Amino acid sequence: MTLVVSLSGVVTRVLPFQVPLPLIQIAIGALLAWPTFGLHVEFDPELFLVLFIPPLLFADGWKTPTREFIEHGREIFGLALALVVVTVVGIGYLIYWIVPGIPLIPAFALAAVLSPTDAVALSGIVGEGRIPKKIMGILQGEALMNDASGLVSLKFAVAVAMGTMVFTVGGATVEFFKVAVGGILAGFVVSWLYGRSMRFLSRWGGDEPATQIVLLFLLPFASYLIAEHIGFSGILAAVAAGMTITRSGVMRSAPLAMRLRANSTWAMLEFVFNGMVFLLLGLQLPDILSSSLVAAEADPNVETWMLFTDIVLIYAALMLVRFGWLWTMRKLSQRFLKKKPMEFGSWTTRELLISSVAGVRGA
Q1: Rounded Cα distance, 67 and 119, in Å
Q2: Is residue 93 exposed (0-12), middle (13-18) or buried (19+ Cβ within 10 Å)?
Q3: Which of 5, 80, 138, 210 is in Cβ range 3.0-4.6 Å of 146 for a Cys bridge?
């Protein structure tokens, strides 16, 4: 798989037209999984989350400008919290209406899976410099933070469907803050302990770049696993650890050799891990499509064309809800927040459309 990821970069340069690298990797994965080639990789979602997501989100948190993140806090949390709830409710009812036989609570659960944007997919597909900086900063911050609200929504929907929990607004709010704040604190503490251990090792064992880089590589996994074990958001813990490393000065005070090696090592790991994420997605596509088509043909109440129609309708509705939310925030900001308007207040309709389409769903 590493070889295929490496060669995919060559393919993008050979093509006479520009295609985002992740889309090439998805296509290669789907081609390799086709019966002609027959490459099959067992997909374990839990193992996938532990192996790939923590280091990629840690790297995104590391690269996120903390000052801009705080400056755009209202916009980011409006998208990451309120918009997720609106999307879960609105899209949940749409799925319940257009998909025959699906109960309302499972429809909400599916909407909760689709509601958060994906930081890994956003940074991989959109790339650097393709979107105006002021929009990209907010989109990246949203993608890093909205997993907590999406996961809490999914958890409540599943629990209500199984009859183990009764939904209340107060209970959902408390659960969200527990998961989110706990995950952020866990990432901060683990990152702080890493900084202290680095100072101790430098004082007693000298500056050994290889050892320091290995420990840095283990940091996102430690943050994720510790937070998940306690019952907090491991995703937010990995993000918080990356952002803490940036602000704590641990890297700035590290020896030059360690910083140079760390930057080059993380660039290589990001390329390989991002490529494997999209390659694995492509490898799963043929099985997913074939099983869905077989299930549709076996069900007399479902037509095959209805599956593709439902996909188009749901995706269009996601874009419409997102655009409607951004447009509403722009109007509210222009009318009620004239002294300190939100960033949305100065956005043009074109920029609102870009932000609506660029909210990449990794699910």
Answers
A1: 19
A2: middle
A3: 80
Pseudo-torsion of CA 206, 209, 215, 221, nearest 10°?
160
**Crossing angle of helices 83-98 and 104-114, rounded to 10°:** 130
Is 218 or 4 the better-scoring residue by pLDDT? 218
Residue 162 tokens read as: 């199984």
**138, 346 in Cβ contact below 8 A?**
no
Whole-model pTM? 0.79
Interatomic CA distance for residues 156 and 178, integer angstroms: 14
- Could you read off the pLDDT of 98-130 as tens digits, one per residue? 887 788 888 888 888 888 776 555 555 555 556
pLDDT in tens, 126-185: 555 566 777 777 887 887 777 667 766 777 777 777 766 666 767 777 877 888 889 999
Q: Give the tokens for residue 297.
A: 């043909």
Distance CA 62, CA 76 (A): 17
Environment class of 47 (CB within 10 Å of its CB; exposed 0-12, middle 13-18, buried 19+): exposed
How far, in Å, CA of 127 to CA of 363, rounded? 18
User: Could you give the percent of the chain with pLDDT greater than 70?
Assistant: 87
Query: What structural domains does the chain harbor?
Result: 20-297 (1.20.1530.20)
Q: What single-letter amino acid sits at 183?
A: G
Q: Are 62 and 219 in contact (CB under 8 A)?
A: no
Q: How far apart are CA 320 and CA 344, in angstroms?
A: 17
Are 322 and 82 in contact, with CB atoms under 8 Å apart?
no
Residue 232 and residue 177 in contact, taking contact as beta carbons nearer than 8 Å: no
